[in-house]
Every structure is written in C-alpha cells, then in structure tokens.
Amino acid sequence: MARDAGLLPRLRLPQNARQVPQDVLQRDLARGALQFGFEMGTGVRTYVSASLPYALALAVPLANDVGVALLAGLGFALGRAATPTLRFASGTGEEWDDRLIDRLPLLTTGASTAAAVAWSVLALRAW
C-alpha cells in the first residue's frame, strides 16, 4: 500500500517493461484478447503499475490451498480481460487511456488497501 500511495517511490519491483503491440487487439478481437492475456499473464510483456500482483504471488503459495490459487487465477484473468474489453467497449480508446491514467493512482491504492483489509480479516478469522 505504501508503494502504491507514493510513500516509497524508490522501491522498484521487477518487471519486463514491454507493451503488447496495439495491433494485436485490432487484427482479431477474440484471438488478440487471448494473446494479450497470455503475454500479460505469463509476464512475457508487461508493465506492472501496482504492487498487488507481487503480494498475491507471495500470498497464494503461502495459503497452500488449491481453491485460493484457482480463485486468484480467475480474479487475475478477469482483471486482465477487463482492460481491453472496457477500452474497446468505450469506443474512444485514446480518451479511455487518458481517463485511466488519471485514475490509476486511486485504483492501485484502492486495490492494495482492499486486499490488505481482506487478508487481515482472513488472518484474524484463522487465528
């Protein structure tokens, strides 16, 4: 949360900072979405704008639960699929990008805060 809120600006997390080309989605939406999801999900090409994926990558193995792993994978897939789907549905990709950039700090901080609260509740219930 502290990194996403800008309190630790020098804390850099590893990433393969290459974007999936835009023409991947423009050639064929269905195949492009699958390719986009595969490349982003496997880390072949990705910019990571939030700390939450790293926290999740640590938390899932520690949970040692197949159900948790499946739910995390499903949530990740839905989240990744939502981006190109919503951008396409907006009809104004460039404007959508601008609005996303403006809202990204709120989205990343909000997501990491929600995850921290959820993990705290789960930890307290297990304790």
Q: Would you mind describing this structure in some detail?
A:
The chain has 127 residues and is mainly α. It has one domain. It contains five helices and no strands. It has helices spanning 23-27, 29-41, 52-63, 66-90, 93-126.
- How much is the radius of gyration in Å? 16 Å
Strand content: under 5%
| Number of structurally distinct domains | 1
Estimate the mean pLDDT confidence. Answer: 82
Structural class estimated from helices and strands: mainly alpha
Shape: globular
Q: What kind of sheet is the major sheet? A: none
In total, the number of strands is: 0
Identify low-pLDDT runs: none
| SSE pattern | HHHHH
Name the helicity range: over 70%
Give me the number of helical elements: 5
Distance between the termini: 23 Å
What brief labels describe this structure?
127 residues; mainly alpha; 5 helices; 70% helix; globular
Entry summary:
The protein has 127 residues and is mainly alpha-helical.
Strand-helix topology:
Elements: H1 23-27, H2 29-41, H3 52-63, H4 66-90, H5 93-126
Helix pairs in contact: 2-4
